Amino acid sequence: MIDLIAAVHMLLSPAILVAVTLGTMVGIVVGALPGLGSLLAITMALPLTFVLGPNASIAVLLGLYCGSVYGGSISAILINTPGTPQSAATVLDGYPMARAGRADLALGWATSASAIGGIIATVVLAVAAPLLARFGLRFGPVEYFALGMFALTCIVTVSREALFKGLISGLLGLFLAAIGQDPLTGYLRFDFNSFQLSAGIGLVPLLVGLFALSEVFWRAAEKPDEGEERVMQCGFTLPPLSEFRKRGFHIVKSSLIGTWIGTLPGIGATAASMISYAEGKRSSPNKAKFGTGEPDGLIASEAANNAVTSGAMVPTLSLGVPGDPVTAVLLGALVLQGVTPGPRLFVENQPLVLFIFLTLFLANIVLFVCGALMAPVFSRILRIPEPILMACVVVLIAVGTYSINSNSFDLLVAFVAGIVGYLMRYNRFPLAPLVIGFVLSPMIEQSLRQGLILNNNNFWLFFTHPIALALFALTAAALFFPLLRPALRSLGKHT
Predict the structure, then answer these.
(1) Would you give the distance in Å from CA 126 to the centre of its chain?
(2) In the chain, what percentage of residues exceed pLDDT 70?
(3) Does residue 406 come out as left (phi exceeding 0), alpha (psi in the -120 to 50 range) or beta?
(4) CB-based contact 65:326 (threshold 8 Å)
(5) What is the largest CA-CA distance in the chain?
(6) How far apart are CA 30 and CA 455, in angstroms?
(7) Which of 83, 299, 348, 361 has its CA 20 to 30 A from that of 271?
């Protein structure tokens, strides 16, 4: 109790409250600008940690982290551009809602789901951090491969209307991720003697080109009378309480998926949102509406990717192992402040650990308030005439993409991805499977090859791992249950 009182006293300091609020607000703005993202926001703020005190530095960085992950949903909903890779799944239902004149409700759902997901994950973190960390350590290459295969099944679920084209799109994503250096041997592959391709294709240029630039090309190719009339809906609408009750289980489940994925080092929020979206489409009562502007799709993505922000702190604090690149930077910032993450941190510096938990909790509350206040400002872009809006999108794409690595080749990748995205949309190839394949490919390939090395190249030994076996069983159920459902229904009628 004494430690908790000390942590609350630290949190309620005016300087800390200001640091959390400003960090969250700046994070939302940075996250909403396509191409920037959480890593850049936190990296730019690192010099501040030498000026601010340890507690204020932690508060600013955690606010930036939570705010930037949520901020990516704003541009994903309004202009079909995921501001951060973590919001790649948000565009699938968020943008159709905006096109249908429900941008204010889409922002309400995204903000609410983000805040609730972050709060649930923070509570889980505070209660079960050491236990979750130990469970995460049980995941080796075989378990990661099984998890990746389970996540790949979402290609089927998001491509039911055009399954063959969806599989081709997913294979293209898997191939594009293989360009560059072999993760184990270091040999170059599929680089076509291009020095720029030797480093592979960046996720951000691919995403902004595939979704945003292809949207610009699509709008430019439309005749004036062919385009849908855009409803100029601005503001922020909180969903009614009855809707929260109806979708409460879905919100909690998506939050727990994000928390769990966050505890697994190296997976990240992008994969978590994809896995959560796939599970949501499998189990939601409204799964037939996914991809057309269904709030459950928004909830699945946003609750999960914001839950990762707290979940990723589990291995960071408990073991000193960063859960993703962003928490790797946070880990460095903690070390700079004289904090040594690890199992002894929970014993030797309990007030600081509780302060971090409370800061994450407060950051998610501030996220909701700031999101509600700032979303109407962002949503006013829907009032901008479409040619000017599309020109602004192109400028944002160029600036955001170039600012990541200061590399003009990334601009070329985004341009080519935009053309490919336009051709895929024209021929009715779904874009989501390409992104899913691209995001999951490195984890699947590396874990498969490491698992084979550890098991003497005997793939069948993978099935002797209990966690992997359970994930393989879930994968098989997800793939074959839709095929067996008609037979089971007919059997039920006969009995």
Answers:
(1) 22
(2) 79
(3) left
(4) yes
(5) 75
(6) 44
(7) 361
Q: The tokens 């509600």 sit on which residue?
A: 372
Q: Is 181 left (phi over 0), alpha (psi -120 to 50) or beta?
A: beta
Residue 53 backbone class (left: φ over 0; alpha: ψ -120 to 50; beta: rest): beta
Most confident of 1-5, 157-161, 252-256: 252-256
Backbone φ, ψ for residue 226 (5° rounding)? -90, -25
**Is the pLDDT score of 215 beyond 50?**
yes
Beta-carbon count within 10 A of 410 CB: 25
Count other Cβ atoms within 10 Å, centred on residue 242.
8
In the chain, the number of structural domains is 1
User: CA 280, CA 299: separation in Å to the nearest integer?
Assistant: 9
Contact, 10 vs 55, CB < 8 A? yes
What is the DSSP secondary-structure string of 418-448? Answer: HHHHHHHHHTT--SHHHHHHHHHHHHHHHHH
- φ, ψ dihedrals at 230, nearest 5°: -85, 125
Strands (E), 84-184: 180-181
CB count within 10 Å of CB 400 equals 24
Better-predicted residue by pLDDT, 468 or 278: 468
What H or E segment, with its residue span, contains residue 189? Answer: strand 188-189
Cα distance between residue 359 and residue 21, in whole Å: 11
DSSP letters spanning 363-386: HHHHHHHHHHHHHHHHHGGGGS-H
Q: Which amino acid is at 381?
A: I
Helix axes 91-99, 295-311, angle to 10 degrees: 140
Q: What is the pLDDT of residue 430?
A: 79
Q: At what angle do helices 14-32 and 350-379 cross, to 10 degrees?
A: 50
Neighbours of 1 (CB within 10 A): 5
**DSSP state string for 281-338:** HHH-TTGGGTTSS-HHHHHHHHHHHHHHHHHTHHHHHHTS--SSHHHHHHHHHHHHTT
229: pLDDT confidence band, cut at 50, 70 and 90?
very low
Q: Which pTM value belongs to this model? A: 0.67
Domain that holds residue 108: 2-494
- What are residue 39's phi and psi, to 5 degrees? -60, -45
